[in-house]
User: Fold this.
Amino acid sequence: MRGELILSVRERGGVLSLLLPMLLSMLLLIASGMVAQAAPAGKCAVASRVQAAAADFMRAGRSGSPAAIRRVLNRHVDMRRVMTFALGRDIRRMSRAERRRYYRQGTDYAARKLATLARSLRGSGIEIVRCRGNRVESRLLPSGNRVVWKLRGRRIVDVNFRGVWMAFILRDHFRRMWRQSGQDARAFLARLEN
Assistant:
């Protein structure tokens, strides 16, 4: 299933379509008009974190502002962990200054893509179904698609949508950009900025 989804995304081409599966679950929350909570989730502290993130994403998404979305990402998502995972071992080839710039620009890049896509999605919501340790299972409304949120502490580190962990999609995309930049940090960072 995971390979089929990635293959179908690649066949469509373009940066935006590569990021679409990763961003779709977050975007549906951004465009959402409601967040419902099932009774079993009420006893789970991490479920409240997902709900808070969803509410903030909704407000930021309605504004259409990449800066507002970036603030929400920085508040609710462990972007440093996500960005480190996305580039993998190649992050070691960057200087400390380049890494700081990468974390900032990677977050900005994600915020720009989310802002662009958020405007086109409306009428969705999320229902928290249950918690299992650091994972929160939810359902998108009205479609009923399952979304699993993985948290580390109080911050989101990954989202599973349609059976695919989004961090792996981001990793595939960023590592491809890294290779296309000749494994040069400056060229890679310039690509992120555009």
